[in-house]
Design a protein that fits this description.
The chain is an alpha/beta fold. It has 3 domains: about 90 residues, NadA-like (Rossmann fold, 3-Layer(aba) Sandwich), CATH 3.40.50.10800; about 100 residues, Rossmann fold; about 80 residues, 3-Layer(aba) Sandwich (Rossmann fold), CATH 3.40.50. The strands form 3 sheets. Strands 2-1-3-4 form a 4-stranded parallel sheet, sandwiched between helices. Strand 7, helix 8 and strand 8 form a beta-alpha-beta unit. Helix 7 crosses helix 8 and helix 11 packs parallel to helix 12. The longest helix has 18 residues. It is globular. It binds iron/sulfur cluster (SF4). Iron/sulfur cluster (SF4) binds next to helix 4.
Length: about 290
Amino acid sequence: MKREKRAVVLAHNYQRAEIQEVADYVGDSVGLSREAMEVDAEIILFSAVDFMAETAAVLNPDKKVLIPSLGARCPMAAMLQIDTLREYRKRYPKVPLVLYVNTLAETKAECDVCCTSANAVEILEALDSDTVLFGPDCNLARYVAEKTGKTVIPVPESGFCPTHVLFLKEDVLKVKEEYPGAVLMAHPECRPEVWSIADYVGSTSQMSRFVKSSKEREFIIATEVGLLHRLRRENPEKEFIPAYEDAICVNMKINTLEKLYLALRDERYSVKVPESTATKAREAIMRMFELTE
Ligand code: SF4
């Protein structure tokens, strides 16, 4: 069906293993959207959650972007409402607003620049301001505040990823005790008490690169368990231990192989972002690329 439709399948690192196996590219949200800008295909089937497919549609206005399920929505992106954003803007008119790419296009359109978990520190350092508004993940906000020494005001006050807050320090410490020689890797969306005890903190793509270049053989992974499939496939000689094996993003897992097939066969569900919103959101994303290149 992929060949028949001249389609490219992009799958996020947290997708089911069987979806990763049929994908042309597996990666993180922005990496995949950039990939989408390069591909020579009429149809992009983006297997992930709503905001990621929206980002691909914003960056690829001339391509048809499809998603396998309408229900795959990121609850953290939904925690940031436009009204809240505008309230903060009014309260802090001179403070730059940085939004994590894990946001919907309508909110991205309101910000000065986007960032990813991989480049958030770099983006904040590039801004000529000691105070920054940052949303929607308050744990990532704490992480960048610690790394940059800037005053980071979270918007909203306590947005979070329901999957990454499942990692608790006591559970992670127990796994560490069991595997004392393993490298503990954590995503910055985890609670600060978890990322602060990690040997390595980074995005899913950064973790993947780190593992490939590391001489170590055992890794404890504190992010959504879907990443372990990719890590095992890419590094068959190394061992990967989930820091918490029930850290499953149910929203990501709504997508199934059958839904991917039907999406291609019927060319559904098309992701459309109104042009005025897409233009502003694209500017915020492109500013991120400019600041990190
Ligand atoms: S893992 Fe967290 S941030 Fe990513 S899609 Fe799921 S809920 Fe959203």
